[in-house]
Amino acid sequence: MIETRSNALVARAMLIALMAVTLLPFLSMLSAALAPSGSYPAGLQWPSDPQWGNFVKAFEVANMTTLLWSSSLIVGGVVPVSVLIATMAGYGLSRIDKGRGKWLYLVFVLGLTLPFEAVITPLYYEVKALGILNTRVALILPLIGLFMPFSVYWMRAHFLNVPQEIGEAAEVDGASDWKQFWLIQVPIARPAIMSLSILLFLWTWNQFLLPVVLVQDPEQRTMAGALGAFQGQWGTDVPLLCAGALLILTPTVILFLIFQRQFVAALLQGSVKG
User: Fold this and answer.
1) Whether pTM exceeds 0.90
2) What's the number of domains the chain is made of?
3) Most CB contacts within 10 A, which of 31, 43, 139, 220?
4) What does the pLDDT read at residue 100?
5) With 0-12 CB in 10 A as exposed, 13-18 as middle and 19+ as buried, what is 32?
6) What values do phi and psi take at 181, rounded to 5?
């Protein structure tokens, strides 16, 4: 009993320490954002006269309203299409014979090993050849393709753990493969679909490299991508830069607070056997 209580105290102490290490950079950014504009904050030090107006100025300077709309359009073009294709592909790969499907599955697994940096140069010339450079479509199409290996892998792992008896019962009742997928498998897969949607939203919203390379107009990038232009213009004003960075992080924090349970489900979903 004493040993169990001691282990619990050690675990809580480690969690508190980890939480402190995680929150320290954000507290440092907040204290710097509240410093007088044009000054150079000295580490984690709460200013005697917090300048909350820095957030208003950063919102206006960075044109956050336009960036929010641009990011929403990009997310709206990437997430639904990616989830739809990944759900159908994941279900199909989980149902075909292993001998025939393992090679297709290995192709998607190979895609997981390709970092964005490795494909950014050929991707730039491909987008340029298609005539969609410097448009939001130049971000939406590549992101759908780059997210697809993980998305298919994710959904396949879920469908492999669905009991086959459910599909067999639907076949006995006369349901076609298409009806079985939409009326039975998709409702069962809602937790996995919701978790995948949240992850894709975060990855798209926080995408920095592709928007900077493929889109020159900061107003057509994601909010994180526009931070590059914001930093170049206001890099010498540290408080204003920190205020802009915190404003860009705010939608992600709000999403996390709303969908805490789905985030936990997303973490647990990665541990299923696939």
Assistant:
1) no
2) 1
3) 139
4) 63
5) buried
6) -65, -50
